[in-house]
């Protein structure tokens, strides 16, 4: 069975590349989507990519993954710090849930330092820039036990060790 991964992006991420490039860089969300799709193709997994500025729409997207996705990779953006609704929706989803932040939120100002949604996730990746999305895809596929043989052996070694 092919792993099914949803990548969800919250408010203002549609302005990546323009918005605060000193924090988020110049890579656009479309460029991130294209690279994520290329990696998914190489790994033989299915990926869907979404962005919305609306909290309720993010909740609906998470709920739509029930029974249709094996993993959710989510960058809740500003909702990371405010949304009980996202926490509740993430708790309902039974698959792998990986929260991604482009910046290192732990090194930011007090307002952007503590994600309340991360407690409902399997793991959190932050501070790797757009590359964090690729790491999240690899981690999700590894957690699902579906790393293909084409992945370098060293990564399989880590995968085997993490299952022990």
Short description:
By secondary structure, this protein is an alpha/beta fold. It has helices spanning 21-24, 29-43, 55-64, 84-92, 131-143, 153-163; strands at 4-9, 46-51, 71-75, 96-101, 123-126.
Explain this structure.
The chain is globular, with a radius of gyration of 15 Å. A five-stranded parallel β-sheet has the order 2-1-3-4-5, sandwiched between helices. Helix 4 links the parallel strand 3 (71-75) and strand 4 (96-101). The chain has six helices and five strands. It has helices spanning 21-24, 29-43, 55-64, 84-92, 131-143, 153-163, and strands spanning 4-9, 46-51, 71-75, 96-101, 123-126. With 164 residues, the chain is an alpha/beta fold. Helix 2 packs parallel to helix 5 and helix 3 (55-64) packs parallel to helix 4 (84-92).
Strands of the widest sheet, in order across it, are 2-1-3-4-5
Count of DSSP-assigned helices: 6
Unreliable sequence segments: none
Mean pLDDT across the residues is 92
Q: How far is the N terminus from the C terminus?
A: 23 Å
Gyration radius, rounded: 15 Å
Number of strand elements: 5
Instruction: Provide the helix percentage.
Output: 25-40%
| SSE topology string | EHHEHEHEEHH
Structural class: alpha/beta
Overall morphology: globular
Q: Which sheet architecture does the biggest sheet show?
A: 5 strands, parallel
